[in-house]
Amino acid sequence: MPDLEPEPAAALAAFGERIEPARAFVSALAARGELLGLIGPLELPRLWTRHVLNSALVAPLLRPGLVGDVGSGAGLPGLVLAIARPDVQFALIEPMERRTDWLQSQVGELGLDNVVVERARAEESSYRGRLDQVTARAVSALKTLIPVVVPLLRAGGELVLLKGARVDAEREAAAKQIARAKLSAVEVLELTAPGIQESTRVFRATVG
Asked: How many percent of the chain have pLDDT more than 90?
């Protein structure tokens, strides 16, 4: 079993006074994540930098309100963002019971009073039309994801979708879905921080 990546200096900069819950989450994910099928067997040596800090870089883009994280899985980015932004309310939307059990256990263990976990597919979520912002990470390509997540947002709500290196190609391929959803202020952001080698790419757009 590979060793857990040592905590990088960038972690304290990202989480500040919230570093202890972040450490507890990483520890729990390292201990149980592979067994529960939440992370792969090769992820421990890059758990902090590739996954947790990759998610945490998005925290400054969120605003106080109700944020939905679609396909929360292991809690990336939902739990990470809930730790970093206690001033924001989060709804973690995940269809798999095994994963919602994990998310709920972490909400309790970490004492997160700004998180609700909903077991549902996005298309069936009770939050449709209610969210101020929506996040998602490693869920599906934009042309598939946009029609699924846009109905969750209120008018004027915002997509904040974490994407990989192919985000520009995904954006081009999703031109019809972007137009159909009447998205405005469409942009791709590349977020970086000292000590973090991999940047975080975000597809951001406003609905209506």
From this structure: 88
How far apart (Å, rounded) are the C-alpha atoms in residues 181 and 14? 33
CATH number for position 125: 3.40.50.150
Pairing of β 200-207 and β 183-191: antiparallel
Walk across the sheet containing 89-94 and list its strands.
Answer: 115-119, 89-94, 66-70, 131-137, 153-163, 200-207, 183-191
Amino acid type, 146: I
Strands 89-94 and 153-163: unpaired
Q: Supply 101's token pair.
A: 């059990």
- Which has the closest alpha carbon to 8: 41, 39, 54? 54
- Taking only the tens place, the pLDDT of each residue in 162-175 is 999 999 999 999 99
Q: Which domain holds residue 26?
A: 9-207
Number of domains in the chain: 1
- The verdict on residue 161 lying in a domain is yes
DSSP tag of 87: T
Tell me if 4 is assigned to some domain: no
